[in-house]
Amino acid sequence: MIDLRSDTLTRPTEAMLESMREATFGDDSRDGDATVGKLEAMAAERTGKEAGVFMPSGTMTNLVAMLTHCGRGGEVLLEDGSHTLNAELGGIASVAGLFYHGIPGRRGAMDLERYREALRPTTRNQMGTALVWMENTHNRSGGSVLPLDYMEKVSGLARAKGVPVHLDGARIFNAAISLGVAPGEIARYSDSTCFCVSKGLSAPVGSILCGTQNFVERARAYRRMVGGNMRQAGPVAAAGIVALETMVDRLAEDHANAKRLAAGLNRIDASLVDPGEVDSNLVRVEVRKSGRRAAQWSADLRRKGVVVAPCDVYSLRFVTHRHVSAAEVDEAVAAFASLWRDS
Ligand SMILES: Cc1ncc(COP(=O)(O)O)c(C=O)c1O
What we know:
Distance between the termini: 22 Å
Number of strands: 14
Helix content: 40-55%
Oligomer: single chain
CATH topology of the largest domain: Aspartate Aminotransferase, domain 2
CATH superfamily of the largest domain: Type I PLP-dependent aspartate aminotransferase-like (Major domain)
Structural class: alpha/beta
CATH architecture of the largest domain: 3-Layer(aba) Sandwich
Largest sheet: 7 strands, mixed
CATH class of the largest domain: Alpha Beta
Number of helices: 14
Order of helices and strands: EHHEHEHHEEEHEHEHHEEHHHEHEEEH
Shape: globular
Bound molecules: pyridoxal-5'-phosphate
């Protein structure tokens, strides 16, 4: 099976397993743990922030970021297709108690005019903006990378009004590789940034939320509130450290494979995907022209040994990662081509 559903399928490397065996076992939420502390410090350094706090998932780092910035009051502005609005089961409203205002956008970037109009102060008659949100890379739009000048504009407008900015950087290292900059150059347009070591970086679990010392101290309390204290988390943090040390540069291979995949599918039919719009390791494929739904495509491809997930009624998401080679990408394209001819 060629499994292209997600980069979270990546298994830990031998070096990660070795580091896990040797990790410390301090109770992180009682006395602290040296390995967790090291990962948090590395995360802060990579994102150019003062401090970091380790959590089990990207969803939790996002939730804790909202709670810490907004304290259960106000409105969050974010792009309509953001992961938080589409795949985090409404925690923004049901757990964090926040209003949200989805702004239409393209390739993960909010329409700037609509954003400018929506950014507003609290008055006696209206709820003001408590937080502005960006996502880079942007999952739902096929791993697109937000340009830095766009991020600068969004952040500049928010900061001029005293509104904090959060960056959901679950795949910030993919964005950094794609833009050819250090992750800190992306994170600087936000007050808080989170990223995951559990995706293309191949660690088994974990995400880190970074910001100022004061922000992270308050975030630790909200992490506890939502059940995110991990106690003896040294072994999981150890794998995260190896992920940051050894797995970042190779993401370029996943990007090259994603381009190869997109080019192959585009040769079958140009309506499927525009390779020029593939920025990182996610490829969104539109199958509407075939008249068959994504779920049907997914079932048919599986019978040919290729596993992909539908991400909309007529869209599939292909994700390249460490366990998919260029040759397997070509096999996946060939399988798709034979089904397309039969459709
Ligand atoms: C952009 C983005 N944010 C947050 C998450 C949530 O991460 P997790 O699955 O670790 O909760 C994901 C997961 O794919 C994501 O793509």
